[in-house]
């Protein structure tokens, strides 16, 4: 197992290096650039723009800039923001706790809802309950996150005054209860898509396992239904959904960009969205690398979970 993990880490490093190279090349070859906002400002002379371009190192070829950025990344310095002048890692460290809180809450909420819904739909195949749950899953899957967020704000915040409209805390109130009230709606918006996806995969997996001979044998031997479902059906149905759950780590991170913008959540999503609007290359590269790293890590975590779920799987 140790050699397999080491091999996967080396492969992940090579993949992330390739992703960074392609992303940096596309970003720097795109028309405009971080100084485009000054080009049509009559108060900024071409000489000042050339000076600023030289100070930021933008007058060098993109591959030279990439090599400098890569050396800084290896040394723990992800560059300085073109827009604020602050170190990128410092800006990320300020926003990271809020995003982790939101992502973990959405992940836990998705697990808490998807597993009962998927199991209920599988054990009551083609019943009215299964049809209702299937329709709800497909509806939620196709529902735009920004629309759902606005509907929640209109209903629970504006009309019923049950929850705050946006933000992470009320001014002067940093209690856990206040954080939970602000967290309910953004976590629901971020996690609802995963609920729909995971419940459908779990339903399909359980239906396939329920048709296996060993499950019918277990029922024929008189084992309790709950024990058969928990020990034989559910566990053997988890491998497909584990794959989706691992890949959804990066999906949750990407979805946080929209969710945090809707609810004014002070996390990385809003930071990277502002970097995109300002063409802040160092911050954009940080966001791309974090998203790619989450995708690779989620895939590795899913592979390792396979061995825990199915003893027949061995990694050499």
UniProtKB/TrEMBL annotation:
Its main location: membrane. Belongs to the binding-protein-dependent transport system permease family. GO terms for biological process: transmembrane transport. The chain crosses the membrane at residues 12-30, 96-120, 132-159, 179-198, 237-265, 285-309. Pfam families: BPD_transp_1, BPD_transp_1_N. It is found in: Cell membrane. It is a multi-pass membrane protein. Keywords: Cell membrane, Membrane, Transmembrane, Transmembrane helix, Transport. InterPro entries: BPD_transp_1_N, MetI-like, MetI-like_sf. It comes from Candidatus Segetimicrobium genomatis. GO terms for cellular component: plasma membrane. Residues 96-302 form the ABC transmembrane type-1 domain. This is ABC transporter permease.
């Amino acid at each position: 197992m140790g050699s397999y993990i080491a091999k996967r880490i080396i492969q992940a490093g090579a993949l992330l290096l390739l992703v960074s190279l392609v992303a940096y090349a596309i970003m720097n070859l795109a028309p405009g650039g971080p100084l485009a906002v000054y080009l049509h400002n009559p108060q900024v002379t071409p000489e000042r723009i050339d000076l600023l371009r030289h100070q930021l190192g933008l007058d060098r070829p993109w591959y030279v800039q990439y090599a400098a950025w890569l050396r800084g990344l290896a040394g723990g310095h992800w560059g300085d923001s073109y827009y604020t002048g602050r170190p990128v890692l410092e800006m990320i460290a300020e926003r990271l706790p809020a995003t982790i809180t939101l992502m973990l809450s959405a992940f836990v909420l998705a697990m808490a809802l998807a597993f009962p819904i998927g199991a209920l739909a599988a054990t009551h195949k083609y019943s009215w309950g299964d049809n209702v749950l299937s329709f709800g899953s497909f509806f939620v899957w196709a529902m735009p996150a920004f629309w759902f967020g606005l509907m929640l704000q209109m209903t629970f915040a504006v009309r019923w005054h049950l929850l705050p409209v946006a933000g992470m805390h009320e001014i002067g109130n940093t209690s856990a209860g206040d954080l939970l009230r602000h967290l309910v709606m953004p976590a629901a918006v971020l996690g609802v898509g995963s609920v729909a996806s995971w419940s459908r995969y779990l339903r399909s997996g359980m239906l396939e396992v329920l048709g296996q001979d060993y499950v019918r044998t277990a029922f024929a031997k008189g084992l309790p239904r709950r024990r058969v479902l928990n020990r034989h059906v559910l566990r053997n149905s988890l491998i497909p959904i584990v794959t989706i759950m691992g890949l959804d780590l990066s999906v949750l991170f990407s979805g946080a960009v929209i969710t945090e913008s809707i609810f004014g959540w002070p996390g990385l999503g809003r930071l990277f969205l502002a970097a995109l609007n300002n063409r802040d290359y160092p911050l954009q590269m940080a966001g791309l690398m974090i998203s790619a790293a989450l995708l690779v890590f989620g895939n590795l975590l899913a592979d390792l979970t396979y061995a825990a779920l199915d003893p027949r799987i061995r990694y050499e």
